TrEMBL record:
GO molecular function: glutaminase activity
Organism: Rheinheimera muenzenbergensis
Enzyme Commission (EC) number: 3.5.1.2
Keyword presence, Aminoacyl-tRNA synthetase: no
Catalytic EC class: hydrolase
Highest taxon listed in the record's lineage: Bacteria
Any matching Pfam family: Glutaminase
UniProt protein name: Glutaminase
Acetylation recorded as keyword: yes
Annotated InterPro entries: Beta-lactam/transpept-like, Glutaminase
Length: 309
């Protein structure tokens, strides 16, 4: 049914209009003060397809904070650098806990449950800091390569705000360090992690950047092999089971696609062999997932019959 749809734009616009009453059922992230300043009543949706088309509606070229969606890019970089050794330092199981939870980290002796909760992403940041001479630049370079846009940057205000209010993430990092699972200095690791979270990007750029995950590791517009076919499969598996934190089960139940959310209000969903959907709207539910973005992706997946299950 997907291939019969030549112009998704009118469907996207209709969905966006229908979602607007939902703005008030969420709350913009305020534990990072710079994010609390973002106007709540905004939304966008974009679909990038493997054959090079982009459909969008709403503020699809408006920048937002990448936040936890940066964990996907960091993970791919670390898998490329470290190979299977990575999986001795981080697990691949859903956590069933909030994204910044610390309890399991003690039970499991400093091994994070998976690479897309905060503890896991901080571990991945350690791998990047330890294996790149300039990991922050390498991260931005990777994103610029994937989007084809030199303009991608890290928002200094968001970065400094997270650095100043990052005590929970510092606690996760120091606990892992105490178990010997962080190699570099904790301040340097946190600096990298906050920097990648502070990346400014828009819905269209983000959708395009992740097409390789829907295409067995090959970025369609450049034909470049970004990661192996096996690693693309593995990232999608992790996103399916853990990408929406302790709402991952519900998301699989209702949508059925590998996906990742961030507290900047964006959600990205991978549709293997077809493309990537991104949606953005700042108000979040109690799991830290955008209310409107969830609804947009759910409705689109439903209308187009995209569930993998
Ligand atoms: N930078 C945020 C944090 O560490 C990312 C969390 C998120 O987007 N879920 O808390």
């Amino acid at each position: 049914p997907i291939t019969e749809i030549t112009d998704l734009s009118s469907l996207l616009l209709r969905m966006l209009t229908q979602c607007q009453p939902l703005y008030s059922s969420g709350k913009v992230a305020d534990y990072i003060p710079a994010l609390a300043q973002v106007a709540p009543q905004q939304a966008a949706v974009a679909v990038a397809t493997l054959d090079g088309k982009i459909f969008s509606a709403g503020a699809a070229q408006q920048n937002f904070s990448l936040q936890s969606i940066s964990k996907i890019f960091g993970l791919v970089m670390a898998m490329n650098r470290l190979g299977d050794g990575l999986w001795q330092r981080v697990n691949m199981e859903p956590s069933g806990q909030p994204f910044n939870s610390i309890v399991q980290l003690e039970w499991e002796k400093g091994i994070p449950r998976n690479p897309v909760i905060n503890a896991g992403a901080i571990l991945v940041a350690d791998v990047l800091v330890s294996h790149y001479s300039a990991s922050k630049t390498a991260f931005l370079t990777f994103l610029r390569r994937l989007t084809g846009e030199e303009a991608i940057y890290a928002d200094q205000q968001v970065y400094l705000s997270e650095l100043e209010h990052g005590n929970r993430n510092a606690a996760l990092a120091y606990l892992m360090k105490s178990f010997g699972n962080i190699e570099a200095g904790v301040p340097q690791v946190l600096e990298h992690y906050f920097h990648q979270c502070a990346t400014a990007i828009n819905c269209e750029q983000l959708a395009r950047s992740l097409l390789f995950l829907a295409n067995r590791g090959v970025q369609p517009h450049t034909n470049e092999q970004i990661c192996s076919r096996r690693d693309a499969h593995r990232v999608n598996a992790i996103l399916s089971t853990s990408g929406m934190y302790d709402q991952s089960g519900e998301f699989a139940f209702k949508v059925g696609l590998p996906a990742k959310s961030g507290v900047g209000g964006a959600i990205v969903a991978i549709v293997p062999q077809f493309g990537v959907i991104t949606a953005w709207s700042p108000p979040l539910n109690r799991f830290g997932n955008s209310v409107v973005a969830m609804q947009l992706i759910q409705q689109l997946a439903d209308e187009l019959g995209l569930s993998l299950f």
